[in-house]
Each structure stands twice: as C-alpha cells, then as structure tokens.
Write a sequence for this structure.
C-alpha cells in the first residue's frame, strides 16, 4: 500500500516546502486542548471543507478522535510565540495566555483575528497521522497581515522569505 520511499529524503523535501501555520483548539470535556498545525488546507469552497492532520503521537489525538468541533486559528507574524508554545510537548499550553470559550464550549485564543469554528465530519488514518475533514460553521476574518509559515523546521513571517 505504501511505497518504500526513504523517510529522511521525504522529510528533506518538505522542509523546503513552506506551509501556513494555524493553531487548532478543542474541548476535552475537562480541559482545553490545542496544537500547532502546518497541514491546514481548503479542499472545497462549495460546500466549504477544510482538512488538517495530527500526528498519531500528539497529546491531543484522543480528544480529537472524540471531539465534535474545533476552532482553527490562522496565525500571522505576531503569533510566532503562540505557534511555538502550542507546538511544545509536555506543557500546559493554555497557562498564562488569554483565551475564552465560545457558547459552544470550544476554547478561542484572544488576539487572533482570523478563525473558523468547524464541525468535524470525517477522520481517516493516514500512515502515522490522523486526517480530519471539517465543515466551517462560523468564524471571523481579520485584517490582512503577514502570515506566519513553517519552513526548514522553524516558524517565520512570510515577508522574511520574499526578496524584493
């Protein structure tokens, strides 16, 4: 089913391929959960469908398998510290930051202008990851800013990679 393509070569290819950065948050019935994602993509505009993946080793995986909805926060350069925080394992990612809950109970991070609340419609195992399809329910589109991207194992502003 899967090829024997060399994993290190595969990783090297994608280190040179920049990706947008988002934080996905959800409620685990007892506590907020969240993680940084570089795999968020739009796959359909009509009806709108978003897809993202999470590694099978993620501390958020079990909660994500049970969740009915999530919030996808689209980050810009100002949010680089948050991207790093939500990518760090073994910490309370919500401690010491401003956030609130939507009436539907998902955790919404303060200061992020562009976000989408999504209902989860399908989950598929894809290698060592879980691929999640989500249907946007509502959200907010903030001012256009310089997006943060993940490139060569680090977070940076898109402007840092664009030469005049």
């Amino acid at each position: 089913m899967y090829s024997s393509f060399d994993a290190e070569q595969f990783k090297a290819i994608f280190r040179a391929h920049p990706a947008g950065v988002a934080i996905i948050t959800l409620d685990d019935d007892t506590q907020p959960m969240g993680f940084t994602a570089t795999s968020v993509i739009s796959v359909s505009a009509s009806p709108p469908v978003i897809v993202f993946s999470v590694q099978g080793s993620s501390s958020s995986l079990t909660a994500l398998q049970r969740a009915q909805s999530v919030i996808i926060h689209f980050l810009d350069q100002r949010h680089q510290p948050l991207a790093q925080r939500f990518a760090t394992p073994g910490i309370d990612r919500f401690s010491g930051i401003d956030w609130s809950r939507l009436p539907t109970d998902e955790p919404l991070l303060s200061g992020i202008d562009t976000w989408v609340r999504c209902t989860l419609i399908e989950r598929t195992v894809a290698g060592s990851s879980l691929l999640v399809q989500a249907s946007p329910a509502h959200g907010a589109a903030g001012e256009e800013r310089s997006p943060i991207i993940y490139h060569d194992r680090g977070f940076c502003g898109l402007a840092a990679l664009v030469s005049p």
Observations:
- Helices lie at 7-15, 61-66, 80-87, 158-161.
- The chain has one domain: 7-152.
- The chain has a mean pLDDT of 88.
